[in-house]
Amino acid sequence: MLFNFGPKSSILLIFFFHGIVFSFLLFKKGKQTDNSASKWLSLFVLLCTLYITPFMLGYASWYSRKIYREILFFTPFQQVLLIGPVLFFYTQSLLNISFKLSKKQYIHFVPAFLYLIYSLIIFITDKWVLSEFYFYADGRDKDFDLWYQIAGLLSMVFYLVLSLRVYANYRKIVFETVSFADSILFKWLKHFFIVFLCILLLRVLFFILNPEWGEFGRKFWYYLSFSMLYYYIALSGYSNTIKASISIGDIPTDTQEPETIIVPLEDKVTETILPDADLWKQKLLDLMLLEKLYKNPSLTVSDVATHLDTTPKLISSIVNSGFKMNFNDFINYYRVEAVKEQLKKGVQENKTLLGIALECGFNSKATFNRAFKKHTALSPKEFLVALHKS
């Protein structure tokens, strides 16, 4: 098989090989753990790998031989209309453990399906119906047509915006329903969005610098940059999948750590005008000050509602309207106050700051530091210094 191992083709080959490997590993992990997010990410990595394939093979001289050139011509490697929807559904499946692709949502794949039909028509016409090329009379790969590349760019921008909206909605719900929001914000996904945005900005930049998208000469740096970015996504995505599967597999479902608890995206919290608001506020204060419910690191709004024999919606409304905070900040406020009381008593002489924080309901050092700074405008160490001065 023809493959000229030049500097450009060899570098892209390395990324191609790793992309195939990570795509397989992610899919395997998804099958083993029944994790649909891993399967969607596997497909995303595979699509990115196929995206660089024509240029890798082009630099390896495939376009210079008839049989290899026709493989590149008639195989739609660059599925730019499919990458966006896959990102969108990966986001939903990662944030919502109950997410299932509905029949209605298959409409998102229609543009990519139509392009496959278009590619098939070209293949049948040029190879079977006519004795000579009609669609490929110009000798240019249809995957690189400007209209298709621009359509792909617009599609990816559109689905990135949709994915960001899903994530923003998820963040809002998490802060309203659990006391450990920092632990389930999926910071990896934020990094994914940033890297994907960099990919889109690169595409725009190279469109401007070289509008002749089918020309190989000045495209190498774009494909090299693209390869490095999607390689980061593959590597980081796989490592985060491993971490998640370990925590889930090692912990019984009735005592899950916060990292493994997913809040359905369909749950929405709305404010209502409540009778006896002062009475409910006092009940909440009693739970915090007398029963010290905040010490439960996995506390949710449903747990509080169960203690008060009411609904999560009512508790959220009381916290929002009565205390002007979301549920996460409300619980962390009392945890911070409890830590401050311990520090004033000098408990830090025998315990570490982290040990005190964990006893007061925090589940990590990072969450403790952020919450303490938010509610006191001081870091824990700065608070100790100020305490000693007074």
Automatic annotation (TrEMBL):
Residues 283-386 form the HTH araC/xylS-type domain. Coiled coil: none annotated. It comes from the Bacteria. Gene3D superfamilies: Homeodomain-like. The chain crosses the membrane at residues 12-28, 40-60, 80-99, 106-126, 146-167, 188-208, 220-238. Keywords: DNA-binding, Membrane, Transcription, Transcription regulation, Transmembrane, Transmembrane helix. InterPro entries: Homeodomain-like_sf (IPR009057), HTH_AraC (IPR018060), HTH_AraC-typ_CS (IPR018062). PROSITE patterns: HTH_ARAC_FAMILY_1, HTH_ARAC_FAMILY_2. This is Helix-turn-helix domain-containing protein.
